[in-house]
Every structure is written in C-alpha cells, then in structure tokens.
Amino acid sequence: MTNRDWAYISNDLIYVALFAYAISFLISAFETAFSLKESKGFDRTRTIRSNRIGTLFFLIGTAAISLGVIARGASAGRVPWGNMYEFSISGAMFFALAYLIIGKKYDLRWLGLPISILLLIIIGTAITLLYRPSAPLVPALQSTWLVVHVAAAIISGGMFLLSNTVASTYLWLDRMERKGERSEFAKRFPSLETLDQLSYRMVAFVFPLWTFAIIAGAIWAEAAWGRYWGWDPKETWSFITWILYAAYLHARVTAGWKGRKAAWLSLIAGSSYLFNYVYINVWGTGRHTYSGL
Amino acid sequence: MRNALILLLLLGLASIPGSLFPQRTQSPLKVREYFQNDPEGAKWLDRFYLFDVYGSPWFSAIYILLFISLIGCVVPRTWHYAKEALSKPTPAPNSLTQLEAYREVDGDLESTERWLKKNKYRISKDESGISAEKGYLHETGNLIFHLALIVVLLGVGASSVFGMRGEAIVTVGERFINVPTSYDNLAPGRFFNVANMPAFAITAANFEAKYDPETRQPLDYKLTALVADSTKERPTEKIVRVNQPFTFGDSRVYLQANGFSPLVTVRDKNGKVKFEGPVPFLPQDANLTSIGAIKVPDMNPQIGFVASFFPTAARDEVRGGFSSYPALLDPRLLVSVWEGDLKMDSGIPQSVYRIDTSEMNRIGLWGLSIGESYSFGSPDPVGTITFNGVVPWVNLQVVKDPGKPWALLGSIVAITALMASLFIRQRRIYVKSKGGRLEIAGLALNRLPGLEEEIGRLVKEAGR
Ligand code: HEM
Q1: Among A120, A232, A213, which Cα is nearest to A160's?
Q2: ipTM rounded to 2 decimals
Q3: pLDDT band for position A158 (50/70/90)?
Q4: CA-to-CA dists, residue A53 to A30, A190, B222, angstroms
Q5: Considering Cα of B342, then B345, then B347, then B351, what sign does the dihedral take?
Q6: Are B254 and B167 in contact (CB under 8 A)?
Q7: What three-state secondary structure class fits B376?
Q8: For the domain B91-133+427-462, what is the CATH code?
Q9: Which residue out of A86, A149, A220 has the highest number of ligand 1 atoms within 8 Å of its CB and is therefore the one to mutate?
Q10: Helix, strand or coil for residue A278?
C-alpha cells in the first residue's frame, strides 16, 4: 500500500470512530433522559442493557481511532504527532483508552455521556478545523525527542482531561446531595468519596509524567533552539499548569484539601492545560507553531 | 515553605502577561507593530514592562524573593531535619484514643515489634509500649527539593552572568570568525569576557535545503561547515542540522534560519564597479519571499536599492510580486532605485535590510532575472546593477551556557525529591499493652491516606 492509501484508510477510520462515538453518545443520552423521567420505580435492567450496547459502540470507536492513529503514522512513516490534527486524534485516543482502563477498574461505566461528548468535540474539531494532509515532518521536529516529549504531553493531557471529567461529576453530584438525596438516576454513580479519590489518583499518577514532558521539552529546546527555557508562551503555560497541579497535590497532601475545594482547584489546573493547547496553538505566538495552523 | 510556595504561585501568575503580550526578546517585530497600531496604549504597557516581562524588575523581584525565601527556609530546616532524622520517634502520648485509627486488639508486643521492624519502621520502646515511625524520606525529599531548586536558580543565574549568546548571518562560501564584531547580534553575560572568546572559524561550505514539492514544507536543512580551532589550524568538516548543533569547546553552534543572498554588481556610469557581492535578504514568509537593501554609499549622489527577492517568482493582483516556492526555480530580483542621502553616518544604527528613503528620490524600478542588468537614471543613466546569481545564507547561533548542566541536574533532583515528599507516607504507629490486650493507634503525619489499612494489616499479620 502506498502512503496515500494509508492516509485515506486513516481518515476513514477516524470517521468510523466519530460515528461510533456518536451512536454511543446517543444511547447514553436517551438512557439518561429516560431514567431522569422515570425516577420512581426505576427499572435498571433496561438501562444496563442499553448501557452495554453503548459500551460496545464506545469500544468500536476506540478501536477505530487507535487504528486510525496508527495508519496515520504509517502514511507519514513516523509517529503521528506532527501537527495539531494528529495531536488531537492521538489525544482523543489516549483519553478514550484511559477511560476504558480506569473506568473498568473503578466502575465508571456511567460516565459514558460526558466522555463521549468530549470525544465528539475533540474529534469533530480535528476533522473539520484542524485537518491537514499527511506529510513528513519539518526539520525542527525531526528528533527522537518528538516521540518522548509529545507522547508524554499527550498522555498527560488525556489523563488531566479524564481527571477533570471525574472532578466535574463530583461537583455535580455533590451539589445534588447537598440539596437532598441523589436522584434515582444518579445513584448508579460511584460515591463522592470514590470520585474524589479517583480524580486525585489520576493527577498524582500523571503529574510525574507531565513533569517529565516539560523537562524533555526543555532538553529538546536546548538542541533545537539553543536554549532550554525561553518563556515561549507554550513553555510559560506548561510551567503555570505544572505549578497549579503541584499546588493541587500540595493542597491535598499537606493541607488536607478534599472534595469540593480540591475539585475546583483541579478544574482550574486542567483549564490551564486546555488553554495552552487551544489558545496558544491557535492564536498564540511563539515557537511552538509546528501545529500546522 | 509556605512563603516559597506562595512565591512560586506568584511567579506563575506573573509569567502570564508575557505570554499574552508580544515580548521584545522573542518577537521584536510584533512589539513594533503594537506600537504602531496603538502608540498610547503601548506606551502605558511599556511602562509596566509588559513587553519585557521576564526581564522586568517586578518579575526579577519575585524570583529573587523566591530565592531568598528558599534559602531562609532550607538553612534552619537542615538543622531541624538533621536532629529529627537521627532521633528516635517521640514516645507515645498517654492516651491513644484521641489518635487516628484507634483500636484494641488481642496480641503481644513482641510480635508487633517484629512486624514493625520488618516493615521498616524505626522504633523506640519504653515500659508503656512502642512508638514507631516510618517515611523519613518524606522530610528528606522536601529538603532536597528546596536545595535542588536553589541549584536550578544558581545554574540559570550562572548562564546569564557567565554565558553568552550571539547570532550571525553567514553567506555560503564565507567564513565566520568568532570575534565580537562578526556577530549581528551579541548578548554576553555580565562577567563574560568578550576579549577571551575562543578563536574558532566556521566556513559555511555548503547548504542544502530540501522541500516537499507538494506541500512546500521544508524536509531537511543541512549545512556543511568547515571548522577550525584557530584561524591557522586545518579545518574539520561538520554537518549541522536544525536538531543537531555541534559543540565546540564550551560553545554550541546552532543552525537557526536560512535565506538567500542575491549576488549583485553595481557600476557607475563609467562602468566602474562601486559595489559587488552577496547581500543577505530577510525572508518574509515560508516561501522565502525576501526583502533587502543594497546600499552604495560610494556613488555620488548615494544610491540605494530597496529590493525584493523571489526564489520562485509569481504575481497576483493582491500581493503583487511574491514567491510561490522556497527553492530557486525562477529567481527574480525586484529593485527600486533611490538617489540621495543614505544617512549611513548619522550615528543612528540602521537596519541592513531597510533604507530610510525619506530624503531620497526614486529614479527607477525594475525586475531582474539571473544574468540581467538594469541601467537606471533618466534621462542620463547614473549606473547599472547586474544580478549575477544567488547564494544561500544561514543564521548561526553560538551559545555558551555554563549553568546548563546544573539547571538540568537540579531540576531532575528537584522533581524526584518533590515526588518523594509528596507521595512518601510518613506515619507513626503507637502500641501499648493494656491488661493483656493491645491498644493501637497512629498518626498520618502528612495526611496521606492509607494509615487505616496499614494498621489493619499490622493487626492481621502480627496477630499470628
Ligand atoms: C521547554 C520546552 C518545551 C515545553 C515546556 C513544551 C511544552 C509542550 C506542551 C505542554 C505540549 C502539549 C500540548 C499542548 O499543550 O499543545 C507540547 C507539545 C508539543 N511540543 Fe513542546 N515544549 C517544549 C519544547 C519543544 C520543542 C523544542 C519542540 C520542537 C522543536 C516541541 C514540539 C512540540 C510538538 C510538535 C508538540 C505537539 C503538537 C502541538 O501541540 O503543536 N516542544 N509541548
């Protein structure tokens, strides 16, 4: 197969993923709407069955996007991290995989709705706004550090997003519980305690990786640009994100923050990552302009 | 510690404006644009150093304070820590019921003690019971983190004080000699001795740029350089690429940018050569549409050419002339000829790429292909310009950064230590015997979860 074939296959697979996630999303949405209405005498077997179908489509979507990312790499003969389109689909893939792995362990099945919305947004914008034909890397990116630095950054991003989804769920359920009891529908979610712990554990788990991504970026910057740190907007915001997450961990570990306060802090830290990705890549100046935008 | 943390947060906060406003050190052109579009606003922003955030007094103030607070925090702590690290755990309080995870179980002190030892607790005993502590690395990590941060800051400081950084445009075929005057741009640190720069010479022997014909993106830039230790020694050949700088002594040389230098000859009306040579032009876009200035002060009146160069010439209604591909497929030089005062000895430093034409008259405009000449001035010709060819130029960046290894080492140690201090569980367990039974309780010193489980395990496993 030629490179072009691989690129087409990759595009098709990404569309398949979008489609599968859309179905999974619709099923979760119907299920949610349905169970919100039938709050009394709620029949769980029904939603459990539809949840299975939703999960099946989620699995199909994740398989498709993973293969799509791999095919994209094959089409360019390199890791598929050369521009913002590739970065977005890879990020979506890690996000979905992290959800599947962690979700299985901690029973997050019912988080399908927000997760699939996020995936639709990420893949949708990637396809419509960010798409670039598959192409070789510009000289500045031709380095093994690309693999190390960007992989670490993408995986961290996926996990931060997942942890933020969990923290948001926490805040939503917490509000509900403060007003009274959880609605019948919300009873399926894990306890507040579990969500709180889970969102924290994910951050604690990727924080070292995030740190590593920044240090690897600095080492790379030394080789590519002649300085390891230059307050480039991307560097600045990585630093800010790092400080915020460090503050979060610190607040939890030494100051004993938990629950609501901690969830808000992690949302703020997560937003700074998102800001770095969206704003700095698209509107920002600086040297991280390899995104092809 | 608390102050240091607040200052660290403050440093993060203070770094935000620098990412929102253009910075002089990174994009001077954008700053100039800002001043043109909104002079009043820009003046105000400038008063608060918003175009030089990372070198501003207030930014420096924060990190100097951070530095001081780190030292102020670490020095006393080292003592405190040393004492603590060597001491035995403090004896158990009289009543354990107030502590965490309190319970009463069957069991004996000896097997509990064995379990605690096996699980790496440090133990002190008295007649009333055992007091055990674990996770001293938590404190150690904390301390090392702060020390390592100091190393990072010192490394960064050393680089800016003892290091240097300079850039030079070298046209292929020319030789660059490492002396201050060779640089277009030189930023030595305060204690960097410019007179002692190592005398090396770099000849740009060959430069190849490869592009993807479809996307026009660059695929590879490769500079073949001949490098000699001093101007006399035989040179060695080095290949420099964007991600592959070469190291020379304690300096590193980077390939940063490239462009074209048209080769021109300017003659006066008698045919006498008044200027000859390559003139580096400044690229304006990814297809290397370039602008430049050819200044001929030796003619009377002085002559200046405000010029554009297109490696692959194209035209359209909106942009006029531009380049549609970054390699030399159809090179053309567009010159507009100006006569008058170039103001080169006015004392005001001038851009080599621009000409101040405010006191000059335009006497011609022409496009040239390689080999063509243009005779300017009418009715009487004043001179001719000949476009002989094009050579590429490269922008070399020479960096001496003595603090770099320290900054790297410091940050790696700092991070490792921070992880240790964040995630190592420091806890105490107290055991007392009370009427044949044991009272057990603990203290999670840094509030990490898991004490309950640990004591659970102790009870289960030591019971046997
Ligand atoms: C101190 C230095 C660096 C830091 C702190 C840094 C930070 C980051 C961060 C946070 C991301 C994650 C994604 C995002 O938010 O967009 C990222 C992605 C990326 N970095 Fe870096 N980076 C550094 C140096 C470099 C260097 C030297 C290069 C290449 C020459 C590079 C190339 C990339 C690419 C290609 C991506 C992924 C695509 C994209 O977002 O545009 N980085 N970097």
Answers
A1: A213
A2: 0.81
A3: very high
A4: 12, 21, 55
A5: positive
A6: no
A7: strand
A8: 3.30.310
A9: A149
A10: helix
